[in-house]
UniProtKB/TrEMBL annotation:
<keyword id="KW-0378">Hydrolase</keyword>
<comment type="similarity">
    <text>Belongs to the 'GDSL' lipolytic enzyme family.</text>
</comment>
<dbReference type="GO" id="GO:0016788">
    <property type="term" value="F:hydrolase activity, acting on ester bonds"/>
</dbReference>
<keyword id="KW-0732">Signal</keyword>
<dbReference type="InterPro" id="IPR036514">
    <property type="entry name" value="SGNH_hydro_sf"/>
</dbReference>
<dbReference type="InterPro" id="IPR037459">
    <property type="entry name" value="RhgT-like"/>
</dbReference>
<protein>
    <recommendedName>
        <fullName>SGNH hydrolase-type esterase domain-containing protein</fullName>
    </recommendedName>
</protein>
<feature type="region of interest" description="Disordered">
    <location>
        <begin position="402"/>
        <end position="430"/>
    </location>
</feature>
<dbReference type="InterPro" id="IPR008979">
    <property type="entry name" value="Galactose-bd-like_sf"/>
</dbReference>
<feature type="signal peptide">
    <location>
        <begin position="1"/>
        <end position="22"/>
    </location>
</feature>
<feature type="domain" description="SGNH hydrolase-type esterase">
    <location>
        <begin position="186"/>
        <end position="340"/>
    </location>
</feature>
<dbReference type="InterPro" id="IPR013830">
    <property type="entry name" value="SGNH_hydro"/>
</dbReference>
<dbReference type="Pfam" id="PF13472">
    <property type="entry name" value="Lipase_GDSL_2"/>
</dbReference>
Length: 430
């Protein structure tokens, strides 16, 4: 972390001042310098730990110059534009920004010594509380304890936590402004939700990086869950209670729904389809745009180097109900197979989590694999000509699953935390 001895950048100060007027002072600004912070920004001193009375500060993390660091600010639920000025007076820096639980927001922002660069992104902050809405009773999301209430608390607290990683990550100032923007909601299992620790990741965590400012991503997926649990734990109700007309909901389940067959409680062409219909009906009733996504395959190859299908029934059922209801459909199952096959049986391990040396988790992806699958989802948004595709970032590029980005050139830095504990899910498929 660096603290250049300069005042808050003029453009950032003006933005904060105007935002404070427009939003009744509900904006927050911070300057990481030793100069005068001014009326619209608070000065953050080195080592200033977060406390509730102040409402901002650094979170615990690796210590020392050039190490990753975490900074938090108390905020109410909603979408915010976050504008960050990067750079250091006497050193080059490369900074990647992740929000809350490792949601990739900005990738490798580079500055030369004495150079300052400003970037903006939109982030969503949420709480478990469900406010009464049309057809929705008040209450709370039934969080998994202690997984969500402790280990993943950053996803649900009234606080925005930003993670800064890279080579000499350097921040000069931060402005946080509440905004009324569209929201892109996500529902899904461990391959979609925000994973809290390396080596696990999901396409849902990578998706914000491929979007322009002006839309917030609210990821309500959770490890081990199904369409049925989305209903029973009131994750769907939470979305419907805050959804605005025109908001989009991406839904991808299937991996854990297979357990319902073993338990004699359903199947892909019966209960699975019925539960998708329930989600689609709820989203449409509240003016939203539902999008059904088929579950990606697991990593398993036959003797010819082709992926063995393990979720094809759920992919087919998802496609069928999408056609029956006239809903946009993204076939991630179909796109995942040529992606894995392009890498091959051995190299494809580098797209999946390795919690222990020599042990590959063949269901859950790492940062590289999740990044590629996020690009596949973005290509699906474009192919379906959804309104949300207008927010795809200019540098998102195109995606051909048979020609993924070279794994050797993947450069998103890992987060500090690491776990050997596998995400919740179907233990028979490791």
């Amino acid at each position: 972390m660096t603290y250049p001895r300069r005042a808050l950048p003029l453009a950032l100060a003006l933005a904060l001042s105007l935002a404070a007027c427009a939003h009744g002072g509900a904006t927050r600004g911070f300057t990481f310098s030793s100069g005068q912070p001014g009326a619209v920004a608070s000065e953050v001193a080195p080592g200033m730990a977060y406390n509730a009375a102040r409402g901002f500060g650094f979170e615990a993390g690796p210590e020392g110059a050039g190490k990753p660091f975490f900074f938090s600010s108390d905020l109410e639920e909603g979408n915010y534009n976050v504008t960050i000025t990067f750079g250091a007076p006497h050193a080059a820096s490369t900074t990647t920004v992740k929000a809350e639980l490792r949601r990739l927001m900005l990738e490798n922002v580079r500055t030369l010594p004495g150079q300052y660069v400003t970037r903006t992104f939109t982030v969503n902050v949420r709480t478990p509380q469900i406010k009464a809405a049309r057809g929705i009773a008040p209450g709370v999301v039934a969080l998994k304890v202690p997984r969500e209430s402790v280990g993943e608390a950053r996803s649900w607290d009234k606080r925005l936590t930003l993670e800064f990683t890279g080579v000499n990550p350097s921040v000069r100032a931060i402005a946080i402004v509440p905004v009324k923007t569209p929201t892109l909601f996500l529902l899904g299992d461990s391959t979609v939700c925000d994973q809290s620790n390396e080596p696990y990741a999901s396409w849902g965590q990578m998706l914000p990086r491929f979007l322009k400012p002006g839309i917030g991503v609210a990821n309500l997926g959770q490890s081990g869950e199904t369409y049925r649990e989305s209903i029973s734990r009131r994750r769907l109700d939470k979305i419907l209670s805050v959804m605005q007309a025109g908001d989009t909901v991406l839904m991808q389940y299937g991996h854990n729904d297979q357990k319902q067959i073993k338990d004699g409680k359903g199947g892909p062409f019966t209960t699975y389809k019925a539960e998708i219909r329930t989600h689609v009906a709820g989203v449409r009733a509240h003016g939203g745009v539902p999008v059904i996504i088929s579950p990606m395959e697991r990593r398993s190859f036959d003797e010819r180097g082709k992926v063995r299908p393990s979720l094809i029934d759920y992919a087919d059922a998802a496609r069928q109900v999408a056609q029956e209801l006239g809903v946009a459909f993204i076939d991630l199952n179909a796109m995942s197979k040529p992606f894995y096959e392009a890498l091959g049986p051995e190299k494809s391990k580098r797209a999946f989590a390795e919690p222990r040396p020599g042990h590959t988790d063949n269901t859950h992806h790492n940062n590289y694999g999740s990044y590629q699958l996020a690009k596949a989802v973005v290509s699906g948004l474009r192919a379906n000509q959804l309104a949300v595709a207008a927010f795809v970032a200019d540098d998102a590029g195109s995606f051909d699953p048979s020609r993924p980005d070279p794994v050797e050139s993947f450069a998103v830095p890992a987060s500090p935390g690491f776990t050997t504990v596998r995400p919740l899910g179907d233990e028979s498929n490791k």
